[in-house]
Design brief:
Radius of gyration of chain A: 26 Å
CATH superfamily of chain A: MetI-like
CATH architecture of the largest domain in chain B: Orthogonal Bundle
CATH class of the largest domain in chain B: Mainly Alpha
Shape of chain B: flat
Strand order of the largest sheet of chain A: 1-2
Number of strands of chain A: 2
CATH topology of chain A: MetI-like fold
Number of helices of chain A: 13
Helix content of chain A: 55-70%
Distance between the termini of chain A: 55 Å
Oligomer: heterodimer
């Protein structure tokens, strides 16, 4: 029984050998992950398939035509695409400063005891069903929002975007029906749904701002705003951009609240304060139940356009947020 | 940040003398508000209120509460800046102004949330205070009937069945995806994570359109509760997967290594160690998914119609659900029916609120067990 002490030290192999059970487990888990990809792919595929008969029938005019008159065979989604972008961009313009302020308040200004509670409130705000926001927007917010519309049309009306055709803003009795159910009011309600989404991402990134850099700024005499400007905001830039884009994705796809507020005429809306307007999602949801089979495939093709728009925006946002997360460890 | 609130004790230990010395050179207080802070704030608020009231209502032909509040806030910012400018450098002026702007933004958002919740309950109050609102359906009840007749039983039953089916499908899939992303990993998992995150903000309407083309038309399933449940499951899946993954990633790696060191296979470690450790967090993920799923209106509107009677059979005939009932009710011209719609929305909101209280309790429990 002699053991040779002179053999060279060879590190033992650490390559894990999976048992059969583990191989099944890893395969199953990978299968579930693949299923999610397949699901998203299938959504795109099945909706995209509806594009074929639609394009076959209407040609590329489907994307450029801004009227929807199925009886005369004139069908196009450009008005709805423009309306969707219009509502989403306005919602974002309103929601971005509010979300940023709320996120900064929770992470920098709020008393530490309240911080968890406020975070929970933001999550709750994100979970409030959109039908509730829609009902609130239509019955509660609209009476006040139309006053803002009127004020804008009255004093900033020289700017084309704030004009209201037939609004007669300076007359004593103003035609209220021209100021309600407008893309502007829809975007106010949508912004209520965008704020918590964007705020949650921003707050998360702000909370990860390195403590020693904060302390360094404080030691150099920075005020609270100085710390925010020099440490928190530069650190959280990716989170701000990513969160806003995630909110944009939500704003593009919001259906029920917009459907409740917008009047349902299919019009190219170039006056956001004026009564008419349409978005892709509200138009699809509104026309779906009465559509004939030909219109149905056109509506589904419009749904595919919506799917592509939101998927691109959301994937970009997810990538930006992920990059910021992986870079959360700062070099010393 | 609580670290910053205390004075670092090291200075005395290192230098051997108390900081500052006889001159009283002390570290500045970082979180405390002194008399100057409070008085400038109160003075600017009151002064601008009086100034705006005078200008707005007395001198200028203006009216309206919205305009008054906006004008007051603008005047307040100007007053506050001017008062601070008297005795402080520009840096402090900027700090105070931005502080008020940030706080005002947060107050607007919080006010919007409170306004939404309060008015929803307030306007539905007349309807949901009658017990029959929860025990009867709208079958054979006219839309303008008194609140002592009819209710939302059909919508409650429908929502319950749809959410049940959706959870039965979305929970295993979402949990499996989360386990794959956090426990198995690899390059493919990064792709899956990106897609799941993009799917979170996928329009709910698109899920409804997908189910409609594949199942309702393709497989001739018809507009039923099952189709609605499947559409809801698609929207719930990414929420559950994402929040579950976050929870699984928090489970300490030492626990997994301990499991492996004891000879457990990876599957055994995940099943016996990782998942039980994360149980409260996983429950939170499920609840967040339910909270999202129960309010889904758009896909349900696409794939299932509204029924006025109680239909507990998910594979035949349309099935009512809470958000769908609320949607159709508030669109009606009948005032009493709009109130019923508000009441249905209140029930929906109450369910979400209760779910969030449960989340809070679970989080507390998790903190207690981790100590």
């Amino acid at each position: 029984m002699s053991i040779s002490l002179h053999t060279a030290d060879v590190p033992r192999s650490l390559r894990p050998v999976h048992t059969r059970g583990d191989r099944i487990f890893r395969l199953g888990a990978r299968g579930v992950g693949a299923f999610v990809l397949v699901l998203v792919g299938a959504i795109g595929l099945f909706l995209g398939a509806q594009l074929v008969p639609t394009l076959h029938r209407y040609g590329l005019h489907f994307f450029t035509e801004n009227r929807w008159i199925p009886n005369r065979d004139i069908v196009g989604v450009s008005a709805a695409i423009l309306g969707t972008v219009e509502v989403a961009v306005m919602a974002l313009l309103i929601a971005f400063p509010l979300a940023l302020a709320t996120a900064l308040y929770i992470s920098e200004y709020a008393p530490p005891r309240l911080r968890n509670f406020l975070t929970l409130l933001v999550d709750l705000m994100a979970a409030v069903p959109s039908i509730v926001y829609g009902v609130w927007g239509y019955f509660q917010l609209q009476p006040y929002a139309k006053l803002i519309s009127r004020w804008l049309a009255e004093y900033v009306g020289w700017f084309p975007l704030f004009q209201v055709p037939g609004g007669q803003p300076h007359s004593a009795s103003w035609p209220k029906s021209n100021f309600v159910q407008s893309p502007f009011i829809a975007s106010l309600v949508v912004s209520m749904m965008v704020v918590p989404l964007a705020c949650a991402v921003m707050r998360n990134v702000f909370a990860q701002a390195p403590l020693h850099e904060r302390e360094a700024a404080m030691a150099l005499g920075a005020t609270r705003w100085g710390v925010i400007r020099s440490v928190v905001l530069p650190f959280g830039r990716a989170g701000i951009v990513g969160g806003t884009m995630l909110g944009l994705g939500r704003a593009l796809g919001e259906t029920i609240a917009v459907l409740l507020i917008l009047s349902t005429s299919y019009d190219l809306s170039i006056h956001p304060l004026h009564v008419n307007g349409v978005t892709l999602s509200s138009f699809i949801a509104n026309g779906f139940n009465e559509a004939t089979s030909g219109q149905l495939s056109a509506l589904l093709a419009a749904g595919f356009v919506l799917f592509c728009m939101t998927l691109v925006v959301n994937t970009l946002a997810a990538m930006i947020v992920n990059r910021s997360r992986s870079g959360a460890t700062t070099e010393i | 940040m609580t670290v910053l609130a205390e004075r670092p004790p090291a200075i005395e230990a290192i230098t051997g003398v108390a900081p500052g010395g006889p001159d009283g050179d002390r570290p500045r207080p970082l979180r405390r508000r002194d008399l100057d802070d409070n008085l400038s704030l109160a003075g600017a608020a009151l002064g601008s209120l009086a100034f705006t009231w005078l200008l707005y209502y007395q001198f200028l032909p203006l009216s309206g509460v919205v305009g008054f509040v906006l004008a007051w806030y603008a005047a307040f910012l100007a007053f506050y800046a001017a008062v601070t400018w008297q005795s402080h450098p520009w840096t402090v002026v900027k700090d105070r102004l931005m502080g008020t702007v940030v706080t005002a933004g947060a107050v607007v958002v919080g006010g919007g949330l409170v306004w939404t919740i309060v008015t929803t309950f307030w306007n539905g109050f007349d309807a949901f205070t009658h017990p029959n609102f929860f025990t009867t359906s709208m079958a054979g009840v006219r839309t303008n009937a008194a609140f002592t007749q009819g209710g939302i039983l059909h919508a409650l039953v429908g929502s319950g069945i749809e959410i049940g089916i959706a959870v039965a499908i979305a929970l295993p899939l979402g949990l499996g995806t989360a386990v794959y992303m956090s426990e198995v990993g690899g390059r493919f998992a990064v792709v899956v994570r990106t897609v799941v995150e993009a799917m979170t903000a996928l329009p709910d309407l698109v899920a409804g359109l997908f189910i409609y083309t594949t199942l309702v038309v393709g497989l001739r399933l018809g507009r039923t509760g099952l189709a609605a449940a499947l559409a809801i499951a698609i929207t719930m899946l990414p929420i559950i997967a994402r929040s579950a993954e976050v929870v699984l990633r928090v489970v300490p790696g030492g626990l997994r290594e301990a499991g492996s060191a004891l000879g457990a296979s990876q599957w055994q470690t995940v099943w016996r160690v990782v998942l039980p450790t994360a149980r409260p967090g996983l429950a939170t993920a499920l609840i967040l998914g339910i909270a999202r799923g129960i309010g889904e209106t758009a896909p349900v509107l696409i794939v299932s119609g509204l029924s006025t009677f109680t239909n507990a059979d998910p594979v035949h005939n349309p099935m009512a659900s809470l958000p769908l009932f609320a949607y159709f009710a508030v669109r009606s011209p009948e005032k009493a029916y709009i109130t019923r719609g508000y009441a249905a929305a209140s029930v929906l909101l109450a369910v979400v609120l209760v779910l969030f209280v449960v989340v809070r309790l679970l989080a507390r429990q998790r903190k207690a067990t981790s100590r």
